[in-house]
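Below is how a single chain appears once it has passed through the pipeline. First comes the sequence as given, then the structure the pipeline wrote out for it. We keep one example in the README because the format questions we get most often are answered faster by looking than by reading.
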Amino acid sequence: MAVVMTDPLQAKTFLVPLDGTDAAYGALIAACGVARKTRATVHALYVIEVPRSLPIEADMVAEGQRGEEVLEHAEKLAAALDVRLEAELLQARQEAHVILDEAAERGADAIVIGLQYRRSYGRYELGKVATYVLERAPGFVWLIRYPVTDGEAPPNRPGQR
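Resulting structure:
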């Protein structure tokens, strides 16, 4: 019988999907902060979504360069926190599926996702990737939503109507 981990702060392996946003880097910093204390492993993942009109192995040069830049920055952030980061760049049809597959393959105890504050049609949205992962991941999922900027103030703040 498998032992079920009940303390998310004792995770030994983290997977952090990155997209180059401040929120994603914030999620990486949070995972590295815990990993430094617990000597956990941190995996960073950048996924290039390939349109169905192209073969999955299509040479997407600009996207690949962007992914390499994001992962290089992630490695610098992790190194500054004295955490070894394993980074990977993959191409796939759907990012969310790859995140779950990679988490399973690497035995990740927690997936850590950084979210920008986003409102569509007057409502806050997690986004399709975070929603899919949250619904289907077998382990812990940490969602770190970045603070609201002045131009994105949520309705009904305390003291507002």
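The longest helix spans residues 61-80.

See the next section for the split statistics.
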